[in-house]
Specification:
single chain, 654 residues, 5 domains, five-stranded antiparallel sheet, 20 helices, rod-shaped
């Protein structure tokens, strides 16, 4: 091999081909000049390709450019060798250069033919233009879409948090025009407190690390107003995973949060109402049984007092005082059960149209003497107050309760104001107080300048037996009685209080438009005793109450029949066909109730009169706090006077 190479590169027997052109020097110059220029041009092309590829690393198939550069460089070297062999017969080296050029040429040709299908598949300039126009149209439509969304603020931030674009929704919600906000930092939208806490940077940091940040925060508009916003920040990363921008969407959720708060309050009010209703059912049942006991106690005390009054000895005097004290205690217990029934909304009411301004006059007369000299009572009556329908006696009692509570809240004295005015409760108020319907009301306000109530006390103010007064100073039923009575009357009651500034209790009674039933007639006086020819059937399941009623009616000179329940009463009348003037029956009876018994007797003996007694009616004769039409009723606990007058009222047809 070595001898072959020596023989191949042996120049001793060769002569340069330029010898043939020695007599034609112009031809030598022509060959040298043209080959030199070609070699120079070929040598510069690879360098240009190398610079291009190094500056554009994104170019695909860069190896083709390097292969083509090698081929061009080899071609340039063949022209250099053509000049060299004019004077030096180095033909073997020239051949070697041509071999290298041939290899580079063939490699490049093969690569180009293989690459040709892929290159032909590339879009043409016309196709690029069409795609560019389509992209431009898509971008335009996307911009129209984004700008057309006005309920959401949609905008971009750079990696540092500066605003880079701005849609119409952002302008509407935040108040900035694009030229005012683009380039400024997004922390501008946060409150000063949030900026001090580093929330803007924290939000971007979370988005950069997790890809997204979501929260509801307070945001600030251009005019400085604050609103609750739902914000979503999405991070945009490059191919290396580095965050290069953020897309932020902001939505005003102030109204939604207000609706959620109203719903929460409504649920709390419903829970409170259900709790009060449950306690009311319990207290109503307790009051019913307690009223029966009180009827026995008070009735027998009355009988004992009447017997004692027949003698005048010292022992009898002391006994009479003891009985009087016992009767006073029993009547206080009766007041307690009345308040329990008021809270439970089971007390029978006799509502009628009244003029609130006149009622305030009577309330003023009632409370003046109880307030003391330190309390300055102010009565404010608005002109032309609307009419309301309510039980006047119970409303007066409720007003007196509120006035006395106000007095107790001002131990050092102060001003107590009772004011009446016409108001309209709109949808906005009723949304936060779902138990009251919108409409026209007369508002009666009782305001004091006393100690006020903290929030925890205010939340329990209407609950029965809840009191902040010292032991022995109150039953905790005053406000619960007011609450139950007003609710039973179809009204609404609300307390506003601030510690150290005082309390206002607002009573809202619905307006009525029928004034034809206004009456100024007073209750007539009825005789206490009866006629021995008048017969009364007493139906009462409690033996003690029944015994007291029978004995009292016999003292009042009535003929009395009695039974423990409705079924026994009907059987008794089947055996006794004598005249019957009055059915005196408890409403709540085992088996058929008092109302059903009265209807059965009416069918058998038309014209018989009925007087109901009850401690807890359970809707048999009272509906929505009103006695059914044509119904006469006495409320337990019974006394001799109330029993006698009630019977005469019914028998005499009043």
């Amino acid at each position: 091999m070595w001898s072959f190479l020596q023989h191949l590169f042996d120049e001793s027997t060769l002569s340069p081909h330029g010898i043939c052109l020695l007599w034609r020097p112009e031809l030598i110059g022509l060959h040298v000049g043209s080959d030199g220029l070609i070699a120079l041009a070929y040598s510069s092309i690879p360098f240009a390709l190398a610079v291009f590829v190094s500056k554009r690393p994104d170019i695909q198939y860069s190896w083709v450019f390097w292969s083509f550069a090698a081929f061009i460089l080899a071609c340039g070297m063949t022209h250099v060798m053509s000049i060299w062999t004019l004077w030096v017969p180095d033909y073997a080296l020239e051949g070697a250069v041509k071999v290298v050029t041939a290899v580079a040429s063939i490699s490049t040709a093969i690569a180009l033919w293989l690459l040709l299908p892929k290159v032909l598949a590339y879009p043409t300039p016309a196709q690029f233009q069409r795609v560019d126009r389509a992209l431009s149209e898509t971008e335009r439509q996307l911009r129209i879409l984004v700008d057309g969304v006005t309920d959401y603020a949609i905008f971009m931030l750079d990696a540092a948090g500066h605003v880079t674009n701005w849609n119409m929704g952002a302008q509407r919600i935040m108040g900035y025009r694009p030229e005012e906000i683009i380039g400024r930092h997004s922390s501008l939208f946060y409150t000063n407190e949030a900026q001090r806490d580093g929330l803007p940077d924290h939000a971007l940091d979370i988005a950069a690390r997790r890809g997204k940040f979501e929260d509801e925060v307070l945001q600030v508009r251009k005019d400085g107003s604050r609103f609750w916003a739902s914000i979503v920040i999405d991070a945009i990363h490059d191919d290396t995973g580095k965050p290069v921008a953020f897309a932020k969407i902001t939505r005003d959720v102030t109204e939604r949060r207000a609706s959620d708060e109203r719903l929460r309050l409504s649920r709390e009010q419903l829970f409170q109402s259900q709790k009060m209703e449950a306690v009311g059912q319990l207290t109503g049942g307790v009051a019913h049984d307690f009223n029966n006991l009180l009827t026995i106690i008070i009735g027998n005390l009355e009988i004992a007092l009447r017997k004692v009054e027949q003698g005048k000895s010292d022992v009898q005097g002391r006994l009479q005082r003891a009985l009087n004290n016992a009767q006073t205690g029993a009547r206080r217990a009766a007041t307690l059960t009345e308040r329990l029934l008021a809270f439970s909304r089971r007390q029978p009411l006799a509502p009628k149209p009244i003029e609130p301004s006149k009622l305030l006059l009577s309330v003023e007369e009632l409370v003046k003497g109880s307030l003391g000299e330190k309390i300055d009572l102010q009565i404010v009556r608005g002109g032309e107050l609307w009419l309301v329908e309510v039980d006047p006696a119970h409303l007066e009692s409720a007003m007196v309760n509120l006035a006395l509570n106000a007095r107790d809240a001002m131990p050092e004295g102060g001003q107590l104001t009772i004011e009446a005015s016409n108001v309209v409760l709109d949808e906005g108020y009723c949304r936060t107080n779902s138990e009251v319907p919108p409409g026209q009301y007369v508002r009666i306000s009782v305001s004091d300048a006393g100690t006020g109530m903290p929030a925890d006390v205010l939340a329990k103010a209407f609950e029965p037996f809840f009191t902040t007064k010292p032991a022995g100073r109150g039953t905790g039923l005053g406000l619960s009685q007011v609450y139950g009575f007003i609710k039973q009357s179809g009204g609404h009651v609300k307390i506003y209080s601030e510690v150290g500034h005082g309390t206002t209790v607002n009573i809202y009674l619905p307006r009525i438009f029928d004034s034809n039933t206004l009456s100024e007639t007073s209750e007539p006086e009825y005789p206490l005793t009866g006629d021995a020819m008048e017969t009364i059937l007493v139906v009462e399941d409690d033996p003690g109450v029944r015994e007291y009623i029978v004995e009292t009616l016999q003292e009042l000179k009535y003929r009395v029949l009695h039974a423990a329940n409705g079924e026994l009463a009907l059987k008794m009348l089947e055996r006794d066909a004598g005249h019957l003037d009055l059915l005196l029956t408890d409403v709540v009876l085992p088996g058929i109730n008092g109302r059903q018994l009265a209807e059965a007797l009416q069918a058998k003996r038309p014209g018989i009169r009925t007087l109901y007694v009850t401690g807890y009616s359970r809707n048999a004769i009272v509906h929505q706090g009103r006695l059914d039409p044509g119904v006469a009723m006495l409320q337990k606990p019974l006394t001799r006077t109330s029993l006698a007058q009630g019977i005469r009222r019914v028998l005499d047809g009043h």
